[in-house]
UniProtKB/TrEMBL annotation:
Keywords assigned by UniProt, alphabetized: Carbohydrate metabolism, Glycosidase, Hydrolase
Enzyme Commission number: 3.2.1.26
Organism this protein belongs to: Clitoria ternatea (Butterfly pea)
Reactions the enzyme catalyzes: Hydrolysis of terminal non-reducing beta-D-fructofuranoside residues in beta-D-fructofuranosides
Organism placement in taxonomy: Eukaryota, Viridiplantae, Streptophyta, Embryophyta, Tracheophyta
Keyword Transferase: no
Gene Ontology molecular function terms on file: endo-alpha-N-acetylgalactosaminidase activity; sucrose alpha-glucosidase activity
Name this polypeptide is given: Alkaline/neutral invertase
Biological function: Invertase that cleaves sucrose into glucose and fructose.
Amino acid sequence: MLQSQLRSHQFQYVGVSFCDSQTYSRPWLQTCKCQRPESASGITAGDVTSAKHVLEFQDVQQLKQEKEVLTSNGTNGATSDIYDTISINSIEEEAWNLLRESVVYYCGNPIGTIAAQDPTSSSVLNYDQVFIRDFIPSGIAFLLKGEFDIVRNFILYTLQLQSWEKTMDCHSPGQGLMPASFKVRTVPLDGDDSATEEVLDPDFGEAAIGRVAPVDSGLWWIILLRAYGKCSGDLSVQERVDVQTGIKMILKLCLADGFDMFPTLLVTDGSCMIDRRMGIHGHPLEIQALFYSALLCAREMLTPEDGSTDLIRALNNRLVALSFHIREYYWLDLKKLNEIYRYKTEEYSYDAINKFNIYPDQISPWLVEWMPNKGGYLIGNLQPAHMDFRFFSLGNLLSVINSLATVEQSHAILDLIEAKWSDLVAEMPFKICYPALDGQEWQIITGSDPKNTPWSYHNAGSWPTLLWQLTVACIKMKRTHIAAKAVEIAERRISRDRWPEYYDTKRSRFIGKQSRLYQTWSIAGYLVAKQLLADPSKANILITEEDSELVNALISANPRGKRGRKNFKQKTYIV
């Protein structure tokens, strides 16, 4: 009854119900080749937003007053449960309303969601654009809801942007590069100043802060493409010639030969979710986990034909090498940490134990105390003479989801999360990394970045959007109680805090000092987590199980015992 009362009086004067769960349409925004008006019926967007907040505040106050009256009449237990259920349902309803309000249209069709719609911020920057990585949880939320059109449109329109010419300072990157983001712009029609048309304006990094190319965009695109096919049952999209070509272009860009001796992708700092200088250049775990997922998804979707035989062979070879490399050299638990502590250095041989010449003095005091007896994780980065021992959440969670980590390692990662709950979750899930860089280390590595101060933003800030990856990982390992607990913690304040982008401080007590409010992927991450917890079987569209062929290839290859030369039958030569 209370919900119906809330629904009946919201925005009746506007003529559009923001509680409508079946349609994206906002008629005054669905325009093509004409100017898009900023308001309707004399009511501005600001008026609607402020009215919405006033009504929500009044509704919450009314609910609280009714709860207090019923509690005083001795019906506290049952009433409390009903009130909590109503509160949670209202949070979900608010989240869906906000997600639909963030939808961007191109020629009348839904094409994505903007990064944030913060009415309190005077500086938009690029938060009014559709980001590839930011749309992933939004797209999954719509897929799970049975609304496929927006995801299909997103996949096909961003594919068109892949082939655009992209140049910065006279240099053009590889053809397979996907944009970081795009914006729908209204421009005058050629030859007719009185008419306008809508165009897509992509950013491949040439306008981004730091001018960093988005390595992860194409990898996320492949993962979403597979999820769309598995959820909708519409395989015609991935079988299209242009889509197959797009997949191959991304793979060729990633599998291209280079100078690197490792199967991992070599990237610059800031080329993924952590898009500012944070010392992750080299072979960051997040990129490797995404790379592995994209390879598996692409192998599943590529149509067999003569032209793709060599590509599939290279893909399979890379999967084997990458899987072994990450599982063997990135894994860290108490036993492995003790081995590193006793490493000998400067070993020159094919059979060296300390292959990357890691100096034991690199082990930080915090790690010795922090590593639990039960549990472990994949380190953040590995290069010659360098191990980044920080715990990076996204890379570890993705490694559980896509089976890059073994079953034992996956359980150990979740064991560590439970053991270090107060550090990684505390008052808002989930730390993007742990611990924070501070002092001279922060100055040197980040360049004294004022946005990445200790325990803020990408420097160990807490990001609610990571709820969905945590939920999928927990469902896969049949430990959903971990995700349910994290979602419950988020529900205590995320709506009241107006859906921030991230939280600051060691225990996530403050809304981030530069955090955007009504951040779309915070909203979508929560919705995906709720939908998957309600029906865990739906997580299969995102999970890749351990490949038996891959396991057999790993066993037969036995890279540990191989030297860098082929074994030829010994012959005698006269020199």
